[in-house]
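Reopening: structure tokens for the iron/sulfur cluster complex, inputs below.
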Amino acid sequence: MNTVTRQRVLSGMRPTGLLHLGHYHGVLKNWVNLQHEHECFFFVADWHALTTHYDDPRIIEQSVWDMVIDWLAAGISPGAAKIFVQSRVPEHAELHTLLSMITPLGWLERVPTYKDQQEQLKEKDLATYGFLGYPLLQSADILIYKAGLVPVGEDQVAHVELTREVARRFNHLYGREPGFEEKALKACAKMGKKNAKMFKELRRKFQEKGDQESLDVAHALLDTQQNISIGDRERLYGYLEGQGKIILPEPQSLLTPASKMPGLDGQKMSKSYANTIALRDDPDDITHKLRTMPTDPARVRRNDPGDPEKCPVWQFHLIYSDVRTQDWVQTGCRNAGIGCVQCKQPIIDNVLKELKPIQERAREYEEDLATVRSIVDDGNEAAREVARDTLDEVRKAMGIAYL
Ligand code: TRP
Ligand code: SF4
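Re-run output (same inputs, fresh job):
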């Protein structure tokens, strides 16, 4: 396995309502692809939802199961990915507490979402301890699985950046295990004489001359070693860069390209704009929503020419139509050869076609909640196993493993 595929992927979503086409095209399809290439952990971030919805938690309760059903219906496979619920893996909370000991307040106050969200959600009092800690809880989510890659949208990149800083600080403070150098040399020897020699040479070049290429080559060398344990590998990563052992590896964000899927009014598709098509909307509702969606305001009458660039319907054609249909729209709109209802029909057909199998699968899961629960139970258990191991290491490193 190479460096990229070896990396564990982790991502979460806040359960605050039904999933819609924006989520599907933006996030879920991406997750579905990732699950075949990586070890994936996807979870329902119910504690994160509580930070903003603490005064109205009912929506969270309803949304947890709906969210899992939508994921499954969209093609997230419990055979390929671990699906779980954050609050059922309480280890996240313990790690959050432990990390809070070493996280300077200023780091949290400076995260852009802290002030932005308070501005945007003025009607809510977000001057809470939980809300300030939101990104640190997210760091705990990520670090507890030693995830390498975190698929997120643009707005979450700062949270992954904070996670990297917290991990670095943690490793710096607690990564100095007794006999580190000796252990590192032993681990090194496990690679075999030739590789060990090469590794030491690369390390020397990096440490003496700051040669980045040597560092990259040494990383690649480590990644191809079959005989060394994860612990040894992390030790050697640390040894390479001259720090102590890396207990919590720094993750990277995997930027999800902004969804090209607009809402029915051309703005971003979002529940708060009431412009969504939910994955489980009734086909008649979907048809109605699309039929009545606004078009280029210049086309008041049927024979007024229009401009697709000024019409949200065109954005849908870009996602749902082939080139021939797109040409038909471009010409027919500009010369008033087609009407808007006619123009929308291929979109209606294709949205319904795309959603049909998703809705069928969702219905099956809705009627068989026992299966959904058991998928999540298994996911919780699998996640806890990994989380417990990390937490053991963290407790030891921090000197609170008294047994
Ligand atoms: N904060 C993320 C969002 O609003 C959800 C989330 C919580 C998350 N924990 C995470 C995403 C860990 C990635 C990794 O979208
Ligand atoms: Fe929009 Fe199509 Fe009507 Fe043109 S014909 S204004 S692209 S709906």
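The mean pLDDT is 93. The longest strand covers residues 8-13. Marking as resolved unless the reporter disagrees.
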